[in-house]
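Tokens in:
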């Protein structure tokens, strides 16, 4: 088997201390670390790095079976060396060997619009063509990051890996907006996928792109990430429009014998869609236009009204919605789920009054606070 490799020397005041910190950090990212013949071996996602200490240097050799793996390992090592080095002492980085020269990020793909379809008054499906999509064909990680170029830009400009293995961003006026979406359908053999966009006017780059998208338009995609479907004896899905594409994809891929319930909140009956699901899974639509103004969020009220089987089979709850509803639902499920048997993933996809960037920063701050 062909193995690609690259080498770099990092000049550091205390290379041993940085190596310890690097190993501890990458273990948190599911790397395995071992010692072999006086060197430290780090294995991550099928690629490996061999690191040796020298006087005020950290000697690094990375190996991978393909270019994407090599670039990913170079980025993992270089970015964390820069991050973990004492302030003002990050070393200059120069890689030698395979994969030299600027390149797209290893998990980045360029997608070209092939056609669009209006599903409901506020939901549009856009179909794309792309190359090498196999990594995105998974139900364990449903989210991708879309890189949406500014409107009117003649030629998209993408983030790149530079000679030092670090990411170089385009100039601010050319920089794509990054938004998280869910792949609704994917056909790796045909090189096609579809993504459903909620239309809410020109209030965000994703919606604005979906409104104007035409065949031949290009965007970028990276990932996948997030968590998705888990095995259980019963399923409960709860979502508003933003979580609907993910729920629809999971429903379509459940085992034929699966049992459960999906409750989806939309504006009104016009926003309902025909969803594929096993016979044992019921899809129930909730309409906001029928809710009283002072009522609890519809998804929360519907959840609390469920006739719960306290000694029933194992349950997996997957939910995605607005932030305030998410907080209330998460609290309610934790009171009812059995920690030794049931599983849940309840996430906030958006928050009233905040941009996606502000919401993301808020969630990161909350995660750091514990």
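Residues out:
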């Amino acid at each position: 088997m062909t193995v690609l490799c690259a080498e770099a020397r990092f000049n550091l005041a205390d290379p041993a201390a940085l190596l310890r910190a690097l190993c501890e950090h990458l273990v948190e990212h599911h790397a395995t670390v071992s010692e072999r013949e006086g060197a430290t071996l780090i294995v991550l996602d099928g690629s490996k790095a061999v690191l040796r200490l020298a006087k005020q240097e950290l000697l690094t050799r990375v190996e991978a079976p393909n270019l994407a793996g090599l670039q990913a390992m170079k980025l993992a090592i270089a970015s964390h060396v820069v991050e973990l080095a004492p302030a003002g002492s990050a070393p200059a980085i120069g890689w030698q060997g395979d994969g030299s020269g600027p390149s797209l990020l290893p998990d980045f793909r360029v997608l070209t619009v092939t056609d669009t379809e209006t599903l409901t008054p506020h939901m549009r499906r856009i179909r794309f063509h792309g190359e090498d999509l196999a990594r995105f064909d998974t139900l364990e990680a449903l989210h991708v990051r879309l890189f949406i170029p500014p409107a009117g830009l003649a030629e998209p400009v993408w983030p790149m890996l530079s000679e030092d293995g670090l990411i170089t961003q385009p100039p601010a006026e050319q920089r794509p907006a990054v938004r998280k979406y869910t792949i609704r359908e994917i056909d790796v053999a045909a090189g096609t996928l579809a993504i459903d966009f909620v239309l809410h006017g020109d209030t965000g780059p994703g919606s604005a792109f979906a409104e104007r998208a035409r065949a031949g338009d290009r965007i970028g995609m990276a990932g996948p990430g997030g968590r998705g479907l888990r095995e259980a004896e019963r399923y409960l899905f709860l979502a508003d429009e933003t979580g609907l594409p993910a729920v629809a994809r999971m429903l379509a891929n459940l085992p034929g014998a699966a049992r459960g319930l999906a409750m989806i909140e939309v504006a009104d009956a016009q926003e309902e869609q025909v969803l594929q699901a096993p016979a044992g899974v019921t899809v129930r639509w909730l309409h906001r236009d029928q809710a009283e103004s002072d009522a609890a969020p519809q998804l929360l009220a519907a959840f609390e009204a469920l006739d719960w089987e306290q000694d029933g089979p194992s349950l997996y709850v997957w939910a995605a919605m607005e932030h305030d509803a998410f907080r209330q639902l998460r609290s309610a499920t934790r009171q009812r789920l059995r920690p030794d048997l049931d599983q849940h993933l309840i996430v906030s996809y958006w928050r009233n009054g905040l941009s996606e960037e502000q919401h993301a920063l808020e969630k990161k701050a909350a995660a750091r606070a514990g």
